[in-house]
Request: fold
Amino acid sequence: MTGTEKARPAAAVTVRAMPLADVQGGERVRVVALRGQGSREMRELAAAGLSVNRCLDVANRQAGGGILVSLEGRRLAIGAEIARAIWVRLVETPASML
Reply:
């Protein structure tokens, strides 16, 4: 490294957003965008508490691409098409919580 370069902090990790449909079971994610908000399914999920900045625990992926998630102690089954319209980022769990 030369004197003009700045060191990047070791803890700085960029996690790109991805569709909820791509998340594996056991992951914790934060919702960053909802696409297709006018659909009936999206309105029902919003009524159940799903919104941008909410955290979800992905229980597992279902056959056919659906996702089972936990939101504030409630289980929600989300179909494959809607899971592709919900964009999320992985939430890192501090080592002290493991």
Remarks:
- The beta strands are 18-19, 28-34, 55-61, 67-71, 74-78, 86-90.
